[in-house]
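Hey, weird one. I pasted the Chromosome partitioning protein sequence into the form twice and got a warning about non-standard characters only the second time. First submission, copied straight from the form history:
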Amino acid sequence: GEGLPRPASTRVIVVANQKGGVGKTTTTVNLAAALAMHGLRVLVVDLDPQGNASTALGIDHHADVPSIYDVLVEGKPLADVVQPVRDVEGLFCVPATIDLAGAEIELVSLVARESRLQRAITAYEQPLDYILIDCPPSLGLLTVNALVAGQEVLIPIQCEYYALEGLGQLLRNVELVRAHLNPTLHVSTILLTMYDARTRLAAQVAEEVRTHFAEQVLNTAIPRSVRISEAPSYGQTVLTYDPGSTGALSYLEAGRELALRAVGAATDGFAVPAVG
Ligand code: ADP
Ligand code: MG
């Protein structure tokens, strides 16, 4: 694809929403692929014990594969666990294996338990334009590690009833981490997912989200698309599985928007809206 501006330093983006099934993983892998296909160097960190992002990127993540668990719990360098994604030049992945499920407990007794991912990323010396972190559907220590490591939070919101419920808790956690652990952290981006233009409800939810988060919501909404949901079972993103599909084009466009937005420019004076 055509080139996009390279950020001056690596943008570390945390894809979070403690609700399951809202499109975190789908957004992480497809946005990452979109940015890479636009010519940028991108790393996906799979931080969900389910390993769905690893699966979707065609990365082996059976129990013996060196993974983010080894980085967080054993202190292994990130460079030892990074794998290239086949078919997409410039795209890399740190897989998650099922032992990550225990890390939430194991981390509790470790030194600097909240900042182990941040330390690993800081020590990683390969040049990267973007790091996208796919969070589990909870606000535990794994997600806290992501929030400490990142500068930006991207919240995927599914355009359905109760879409904003629980969001207040996520936003408060972002504020807590910003206040105590990571002053650079801010919610930079909201992406509407599984948007069904035919339903009035989707339009209403989208409007409500755009009212609450005027600056953060990307203009591009991701449509509900069978091709998007099929791609992971082939170990592919929708961008290689069906490049001409509306799903692929929407993620390419969302990636373009994300890259063209200056870091932090839209977020000065951002106050936590009273939702959830
Ligand atoms: P999360 O990571 O937040 O739990 P996922 O990204 O795994 O959510 O998405 C939940 C389910 O919805 C998955 O089965 C996924 O394939 C499907 N899905 C996600 N985005 C879309 C979309 N735009 N169109 C159709 N299905 C989607
Ligand atoms: Mg997921």
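That's the output from the first submission. The warning seems to come from a hidden character in my clipboard, not from the data itself. Confidence is low (pLDDT under 50) at residues 264-276.
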